[in-house]
Amino acid sequence: MYTSCMNPKLDIHDYEKRYKSSLCTLEKSEISNKNKELIQNFDRACALENLSISRRIRIIGTLNTISKFLDVDFDKASKDDLKNVVLKIDTKKEWSIATKHTYKAIIKKFYKWLAYGDEYKDFQDYPEIISWMKVSIKSKDQPRINASDILTELEIEKLINVAEHPRDKAFISMLYELGARIGEIGSLRIKDVSRDKYSFIIDLSGKTGHRTPRIVISDPHLSSWLNIHPFKNNPNAPLWIMLGNRNKNERMRYA
Question: Is the confidence at residue 209, as pLDDT, over 90?
Fold first, then answer.
């Protein structure tokens, strides 16, 4: 079922499927064919830049929406046209500050590419049409995380205790102990966990790079899960798989 020729990193977010869906949505969009072409070409430039597929999905969707805000093709827009777009973004009450920031950052990046082509990153200055746009978030608007927003160790213990299956106990415990992104934990394979005489060592790769932390608190939970894992002898199998009748034994996905 799981072979060595499979992608070394599992896609628990189904980004490939979502990327194809975003292209399909773009193709069916009522925006002009010219703007569709420009978005597709910019996506190609982002791929050559090695931008993650998740960011490219966001860029395609954002530019599709921005195109609907404009009355002209991207390459025909004036500075005033873009100022009107920014005004529409800023007056979207249902959008968070972070979403508005993302939209503006993508617009600025896109128009830099539109002005300079695929070598746009070699240019320090932005073109005049977009150089006026501010994309930083004011310090007073920065999201704040309160202590009450963070689960305590006691609350984590309660979550682990009420979890009925060893898989869930191991997953919750490792998320807490490693402090890793859910994508880093969720994309692990059997071969990414090894054990010495002390405890398990986890081979993690993500945005923060590669590291091999040791787990202590999670060690017994992971051991219990691996003991009953149906593919524990297959190094390329996902560490986390579905348990129910629907999609049973398939890799676990994160919606």
Answer: no
